[in-house]
């Protein structure tokens, strides 16, 4: 299987302090990968390195086999969508303008952008008549769906998501997570998602990458991780949702 993303001995330090230690990571095309770990594990740093928002202190990041160091940031990010918890929607712009901002910057014709906006609202299960509203007129879950739509506007092959569901209530969170997985499959994306919710990662992802203290401790399928892992940090992290599931099953049995 061809790799969409490769980190080759990549590290990142600020003022001599490592936030990501030397890391090798391969993500195959079409995979849904979740990055999990506690605060300060290096998850968001890794995501920003993939997107070229920050440069590595050492090593190389390759997208589709090419070192991104030789590519202008705007050219790189045409093929990479980025959605995050605080959606960053521009409050003075309509929903349609927010979704269409990247295609507009790329010089797409107005009628093409309008058609793409309608298509994306359908894809993220929002009514088309919200297109003229301001972000403040939408609920948190709706704004997050607009953020996903905006990330997909220029038809990227890679979707990066940083805690995209973190601020949502549990019911909305599950619905949006299911829709993101559906979009991943329907659009043939390579998706990398940062989440603090290990249970969510195990349920959504094809592979889970466990990080701690700026290091990758494990990269494996949910089934493999649930079967056990020799690293105690990984084992403890995976044990928490297993215990919750067992307690819920006991409650259901009465």
Automatic annotation (TrEMBL):
Coiled-coil annotated spans: none
Protein name in UniProt: ABC transporter related protein
Alphabetically ordered keywords of this record: ATP-binding, Nucleotide-binding, Transport
Annotated source species: Caulobacter segnis (strain ATCC 21756 / DSM 7131 / JCM 7823 / NBRC 15250 / LMG 17158 / TK0059) (Mycoplana segnis)
Residues annotated as transmembrane: none
UniProt-listed InterPro entries: AAA+_ATPase, ABC_SmlMolc_Importer, ABC_transporter-like_ATP-bd, ABC_transporter-like_CS, P-loop_NTPase
Gene Ontology MF terms in the entry: ATP binding; ATP hydrolysis activity
One GO term of the biological process aspect: quaternary ammonium group transport
Zinc among keywords: no
Residue ranges occupied by any ABC transporter domain in the UniProt entry: 5-238
Superkingdom of the organism of origin: Bacteria
A Pfam family the protein falls into: ABC_tran
């Amino acid at each position: 299987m061809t790799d969409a993303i490769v980190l080759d001995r990549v590290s990142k330090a600020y003022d001599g302090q490592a936030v990501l230690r030397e890391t090798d990571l391969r993500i195959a095309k079409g995979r849904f990968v979740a990055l999990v770990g506690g605060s300060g594990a290096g998850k968001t740093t890794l995501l920003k390195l993939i997107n070229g928002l920050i440069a590595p202190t050492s090593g190389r990041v390759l997208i589709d086999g090419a070192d991104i160091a030789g590519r202008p940031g705007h050219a790189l990010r045409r093929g990479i969508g980025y959605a995050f918890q605080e959606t960053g929607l521009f409050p003075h712009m309509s929903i349609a303008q927010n979704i269409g901002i990247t295609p507009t910057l790329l010089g797409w014709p107005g009628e093409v952008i309008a058609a793409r906006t309608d298509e994306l609202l359908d894809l993220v299960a929002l009514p088309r008549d919200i297109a003229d509203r301001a972000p403040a007129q939408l609920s948190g879950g709706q704004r997050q769906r607009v953020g996903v739509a905006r990330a997909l506007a220029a038809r990227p092959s890679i979707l990066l998501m940083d805690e995209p569901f973190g601020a949502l209530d549990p019911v909305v969170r599950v619905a949006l997570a299911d829709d993101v997985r559906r979009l991943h499959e329907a659009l043939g994306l390579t998706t990398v998602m940062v989440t603090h919710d290990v249970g969510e990662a195990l349920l959504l992802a094809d592979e889970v990458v466990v990080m701690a203290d700026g290091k990758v401790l494990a990269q494996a399928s949910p089934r493999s991780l649930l079967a056990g892992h020799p690293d105690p940090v990984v084992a403890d992290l995976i044990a928490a949702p297993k215990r919750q599931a067992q307690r819920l099953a006991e409650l259901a049995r009465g």
